[in-house]
TrEMBL record:
Peptidase M15C domain location: 188-253
Pfam families assigned to the protein according to its UniProt record, in alphabetical order: Peptidase_M15_4 (PF13539)
Protein name: M15 family peptidase
Keywords, sorted A to Z: Membrane, Transmembrane, Transmembrane helix
Organism: Noviherbaspirillum cavernae
Transcription regulation among keywords: no
Annotated transmembrane regions: 61-81
InterPro entries noted in UniProt: Peptidase_M15C, Zn_M74/Hedgehog-like
KW Membrane (keyword) present: yes
Single GO molecular function: peptidase activity
SUPFAM superfamilies hit by this protein: Hedgehog/DD-peptidase
Matching CDD domains: L-Ala-D-Glu_peptidase_like
Amino acid sequence: MVLHAGRRQQWRDRMLSSSQKARIRLQRYVKFMVMPLQVLSPSRLHAVLATVSDFLRRRKIATLITSTLLVFPFLLTMAFLGESRLEGFDDTPRASDPVITTLLHGEQLVPPPPLPPEYFVSREVEAHRQELGSASREWLKLDADFRQRLLTAYELMVRRGYQMTLLEGYRSPERQALLAKLGAHVTNAGAYQSYHQYGLAADSAFLRDGKIIISEKDPWAMEAYRQFGECAELAGLVWGGRWRMMDLGHVELRKSNILGRR
Ligand SMILES: [Zn+2]
């Protein structure tokens, strides 16, 4: 009986058990996977490459056009992706804690009532911070996002038993220049070199027994600063306590394209 090859295969397959069929399928699969490796032995690979390069050499223009057509959409996509990534890029950290998320994105937090001016010219305050009497403590002069984050940090501190107070928020370029003249112990930044000028930085201290506490030598204050740094970072702010020249009461919100930072 002469059977066509395909029909012979079908007939044989019907006779086999399922495990035999599975074994045969596996053998075919392995053979199929190994075949390209056999075909591409070093000498054959060399021959294939020589043929391809010879083909490309003979059709220079066609090759150029084809490769351009293949690469161009990819480059175009990358260019657009790059642009949108820069524009929409927000490098501020996101809070993952549900309490902080609610504070940050819930209703607008209300700033604490302003303290009388004499609080900021006491001997204790003057010993640590000069020229605070003329500093701005207007919450509305701060960037809205920064304000909400700072108030979130304040609220977290209240829950830890600390009452915060704003020493200085927005700082005009003129005032920044004046402070820079006082020396490096006051500030290293000249006009427009500080986040204070963009309403994106603030200096805070603590209220204890009706007095502003700034001292960094007081162990109670040191612990308070450590906790404040923790709360500020939870709210997505950068804390000056981590800097080489520590500025324990300072926090800022980094934003794209401000002070040359992306
Ligand atoms: Zn500051």
